[in-house]
Design a protein that fits this description.
The complex is a heterodimer of chains A (442) and B (230). By secondary structure, chain A is α/β, with parallel strands linked by helices. In chain A, 22% of the residues lie in helices and 34% in strands. A nine-stranded parallel β-sheet of chain A has the order 12-9-6-33-30-27-23-21-15, with helices on one face. In chain A, strands 1, 2, 3, 4, 5, 36 and 37 form a seven-stranded antiparallel β-sheet that branches. In chain A, 41% of the residues are buried. By secondary structure, chain B is an alpha+beta fold. Chain B is rod-shaped, with a radius of gyration of 29 Å. The chains are: A alpha/beta (442), B alpha+beta (230).
């Protein structure tokens, strides 16, 4: 009987072992499946998180060097691999980094046999994409539209209700109840001082090396005590990769960059024209810089040459002065950059003459192609001001100023609408942003 | 100790046979259980994958619309398959941009764009801009396209009974749909063909809450949901 008992005991042990093996196998299968599921999902999350982490590290981390420009993190176009939540993150730029155009970035998260790949597009923030970038406190009128991002180091005071900020505002707005904010963020970027990024000498150097310096009271432009530039008389012709510029029939030369740099005060005027809204000509900005004041004495708009459209970028070493020669329904289609530190950086005169039917029509056409249509009260106020010949100012471009903006008391509406043009001569800001909708899983 | 009796041998042999049979059944059961576990996680993995595809589909469609101030305010996702005219929880349509924004002028009969944009007959467009001083939008089908110098003149047939903008921005779009029927979520291609996108599914429905679309689905023992904001 002892042999039988021994055999039975052995068989029971065998049964137990078999059951244990089965349970172990089931547990292993369950663990493997669940782990596979989580790890694959986590790899995707790690990719997304790493993209955000890189952008946040760049924007919110130490100022120098920033992540995307730090050789410790990049070897050429290759990202130096790093660990994030147990995932090995690698990546590469698909082309050398560009400060003026979007950059495609491939990010791969790896852990053992788990892998995920994401492609995103990041671009550097640029001053000209702001509606307003200012170091000084500003006072803005109500019933106004600010259709681009705003940065103000000092508080912005609103004089009356109804100002609509359609993009993110970094800066205090007082009183907040007068403003409507369409987008909000918790991030605060340490935007650089304008003086640290832009200097007048960089524009004069660019003009001397590759552009058109206008100096020593150049007879083609000099009148009494200032230069006068009638944009109707300026002719730009593309010659290969250069631009041949003539003024009032006299050739100024042929250079790579269409930049005119005046060494003293300059007055600018231009007659109103209706540009073809369907034009797809390439954009080649025309830079007009002055070591001193720039006086604008008419509406301004992009120039059109045979092969390109030339958005205007005005850079003044002191003040950009929008005079009362501009119609009451004023339209400035240009980037306005004032580097003067003594007030004011942008000065708008009171009064003016009522705009002609044609001028109003051109202004209306501009406004109707903008976000103004989406802001009912401001749109109504705009058309009322236009009808009543009240003073309103439509700036289609960026306003960048180190010192204050001086607005007249009769200005009932100020609309700041970025044009979306890229002025490649302006250096990009060191911050980057993800281009909406650019995420593609591979 | 003189060996087994016949009875003992028979009992032991029977027991051994039972162990082998039971062991075989246990192995079968274990295999079935393992397959069930794997299939359960597979459906969850499939759910996650489909959710990412749907999310990216809406996200990328929206990014192009949001990139233009005029187009940003027009809807591109509708309950039902006819621009929201017959809302349904089981179907939904999405306009997927196939071009960057194109400036246009509309004179009441012809929609004019630059000749560089190769828009052709039978393609669909989303148009947004101004009707007088007011904002308006519409979707339309291109019924004619004539090249006139540097301008391409399009004749269009609006899909919705509402005014067409006089000027503004337009996008070339493809109208895609999703419909749940017969335990399958079908993708309805721009040409109108139904292709299974996700099957089998026990349930799938769309719910609109303000500007958000909630997707709910049930497959096997898994419930899933996704929220997108067109």
């Amino acid at each position: 009987m002892r042999g039988f008992a021994l055999l039975l005991a052995t068989l029971f042990l065998l049964v137990l072992t078999l059951f244990s093996l089965c349970f172990l196998t089931i547990a292993t299968t369950y663990y493997t499946s669940a782990r596979g599921l989580f790890e694959n999902q986590n790899a995707k999350l790690a990719c997304e998180e790493s993209a955000i982490q890189m952008i946040d590290t760049n924007n919110l981390g130490p100022a120098a060097p920033r992540f995307f420009f730090d050789p410790q993190h990049w070897q050429g176009q290759q990202l130096q691999p790093f660990l994030s939540n147990g995932y090995f993150i690698s990546g590469a730029l698909l082309a050398p980094w560009s400060g003026s155009s979007p950059n495609a970035l491939r990010i791969v998260a790896n852990k053992g046999r788990y892998r995920s790949e994401l492609r995103v597009v990041v671009r550097q923030k640029r001053m000209e994409r702001f509606a307003l970038y200012t170091e000084n406190g500003q006072i803005l009128p109500g019933n106004s539209l600010v259709a681009g991002p705003v940065f103000s180091r000092q508080p912005i005071d609103l004089t009356s209700p109804g100002i609509s900020f359609r993009e993110i505002v970094q800066g205090d707005v007082q009183p907040e109840s007068y403003a409507v904010f369409h987008k909000k963020t918790l991030h605060t970027y340490e935007y650089p001082l304008i003086g640290d990024v832009l200097s007048l000498s960089s524009f004069s150097d660019a003009a001397v090396q590759n552009g058109f310096p206008i100096s020593n009271q150049n007879a083609a432009f000099w009148i009494t005590d200032h230069y006068e530039l009638n944009l109707d008389l300026l002719n730009l012709v593309a010659v290969g990769k250069s631009w041949a510029i003539s003024y009032n029939g006299s050739a100024l030369g042929k250079q790579a960059l269409p930049i005119l740099y005046f060494d003293a005060r300059v007055w600018i005027r231009q007659s109103d024209q209706s540009l073809d809204p369907l034009s797809t000509k390439p954009r080649v900005p025309l830079y007009i810089a002055s070591a001193s004041e720039i006086q604008v004495r008419s509406n301004l708009q992009s120039l059109e040459s045979g092969t390109a459209l030339h958005p205007l970028c005005l850079i003044s070493g002191t003040t950009i002065h929008l005079t009362s020669q501009i119609p009451l329904s004023g339209r400035i289609e240009a980037g306005l950059i004032s580097l003067g530190t003594s007030a004011p950086g942008l000065m708008v005169d009171a009064g003016g003459t009522p705009g002609s039917v044609f001028q109003k029509q051109v202004l209306q056409e501009s406004a109707r192609r903008s976000a103004l249509l989406l802001e009912d009260p401001i749109n109504t106020s705009f058309h009322q001001a236009l009808q009543n010949d009240d003073k309103l100012l439509w700036i289609q471009g960026c306003v960048v100023t180190q010192s204050s903006i001086q607005l007249p008391p009769d200005l009932v509406q100020l609309d700041l609408v970025p044009s979306g043009e890229t002025f490649a001569l302006l250096p990009p800001l060191p911050f980057v942003e993800l281009v909406d909708g650019s995420q593609v899983w591979q | 100790m003189r060996g087994f009796s016949l009875l003992e041998f028979m009992i032991a042999t029977s027991f051994l046979c039972i162990i082998f049979l039971t062991g075989f059944q246990v192995l079968e059961a274990q295999k079935m259980l393992s397959n069930q576990i794997a299939s359960r996680t597979q459906s969850e993995e499939e759910s996650n994958y489909r959710a990412v595809v749907l999310k990216n589909f809406f996200y990328q469609a929206g990014a192009v619309f949001h990139g233009d101030s005029l187009l940003s305010q027009m809807p591109y996702c509708f309950p039902g398959l006819d621009f929201g005219l017959s809302p349904s929880q089981k179907s939904l349509s999405v306009a997927v941009p196939k071009s960057a924004s194109i400036p246009f002028l509309y004179d009441g009969s012809k929609l004019k764009i630059s000749a560089v944009f190769p828009i052709q007959v039978d393609q669909s467009v989303a148009v947004a801009g101004h009707c007088g001083d007011q904002y308006c939008w519409n979707y339309a089908k291109v019924t004619g396209a004539v090249l006139n110098g540097t301008i391409r003149e399009l004749t269009i047939q609006p899909f919705l009974v509402q005014p067409l903008p006089e000027a503004g921005s337009m996008l070339l779009v493809e109208l895609n749909g999703f419909a749940f029927q017969n335990d399958t979520l079908y993708w309805i291609s721009p040409a109108g063909a139904n292709e299974p996108f996700w099957a089998p599914l026990d349930d799938f429905r769309f719910e609109w809450s303000g500007s958000q679309v909630h997707f709910y689905w049930h497959v096997g023992t898994n419930d899933g949901d996704l929220v997108v904001q067109p």
